[in-house]
Amino acid sequence: MFLETLKQIFDTFGAQIFVPFIIFIVALFLKVQVKKAFFAALYAGIGLQGFTLLLNAFIPVIMPVVQQMVESTGVKLPVFDIGWQATAVVAYSTEVGMIFLGLGILLQIVLFLARWTNIFQPGDLWNNYSYMVWGSMIYLITDSMALAIGCMIVLNLYSLLFSEMIARRWSTYFNYPNCTIVQLHHVGTVPFGIGMNWILDKLGAGKINLSPSDLQKKLGFLGEPIALGLLLGLFLGIMGNLKELGTLASWGEIATVGVATAAVMAIFPKVSGIFAQAFLPLTEAAKKKGKQGSKSREWYLGVNDAAGYGEAATLISGITLIPIMVLMALILPGNEVLPVVDLIALPFMVQGLVAIMNGNIFKVLVSGTIWFSLGLYLATYTAPIFTQVATEVGVSIPTGVLLITSFGILTKPIAGLIFLAFLSQSWLLIGLVIAIYAVSYFLFKKKKEAFYSYMENMNSRAA
Predict the structure, then answer these.
(1) Pairing between strand 179-181 and 300-303?
(2) Do residues 230 and 262 make contact, with C-beta atoms less than 8 angstroms apart?
(3) d(C-alpha 430, C-alpha 441), whole Å
(4) Is residue 144 helix, strand or coil?
(5) How many structural domains are present in the chain?
(6) What residues make up the domain containing 272?
(7) Which residues lie across from 337 on neighbouring strands?
(8) Pairing outcome for strands 119-120 and 179-181
(9) In 3-state terms, what secondary structure has residue 241?
(10) Rg from Cα positions in the chain
């Protein structure tokens, strides 16, 4: 009963309510004036609501074009991508998922208060479903509640570590003071992104300056963010209407997608600026506390991934990856997944890579192509398990579809490897996964400042 009530609260009050409440409480704790604390919280709510309104207007415009592009290939693969929304429904509908709903929140709060992590993850509670879906699949196969819960806890520990590793870089790049992303399905790119950034720089890719500011210098007025948005939207519209280019209706849709993408490029920074204002009083209060000799703590609030969606390099990289990943799905030997619904989520999914690579679109595209291609194989393997879980909780399988998956959630290689270790029920493999986490955690904590400096210096050299 308690967990059902908790779920109803999450469904009723979204991030635009939770985050302001948290900010208000934290601001008062830092002795910010009540008026400033109130407006900080209100700015956060307005910003998050603005992101939601913007995305809810943009995605319905671009989604039909993406689906038409996929359908125009004529290829029928046995595993259909039903999208992250349906995956969340599955996660919140299983017994083990509901147990972790309460347990996960408690774990995240305790780890923060105990200073095990400097990430306050409950700022984005809804996305806990990403742990719950992996745990639900473990429980289905092993019938072991202990293994399922253990898997979700270990996944949560890894994602908190990755979130803290990228926290300062994400906060700096996206210009949200003391904020970071915490979603398991996004922060899993962090170790891969750091390694790929180093490799690509060694291969000379760092010399290929392809950030929004570089494009603006090279292309003149066509390099302006809104012009790039227009061109990108027109390109995507044409890709989705290749078979209908002789009709007036297709060009109407192409033009609409172009202007809609340009609109996101123009409006998003303004909403982003409002959201960022929410954290200024907290930052100032924390600095004052430090100057007064109090034991200061650098901490980061977990925010919804919508906060980075429309940033120029993120949106350009994500949308450009849409046709690339459709092509990869068609040509990769052994892949059985046809990404469809979650393709539009790619700008959410590349945020970690964009921050690590300081907005270098070329490096993000290369890394993203490799990362998400590996994920297609993982989703191919897990599709039968996920389909069975979804069927048991009443999810309808689309007509003519054999298996289902989520390109946005179930294609994460690191999460998948942890899942496979617990699925094996081998205590050796499970112990190895835990040992790797422990070593990584203590090395990072010991060398944290050196690590953060390395991340910033690496991007300074690339710039």
Answers:
(1) parallel
(2) yes
(3) 17
(4) coil
(5) 1
(6) 2-462
(7) 79
(8) unpaired
(9) coil
(10) 22
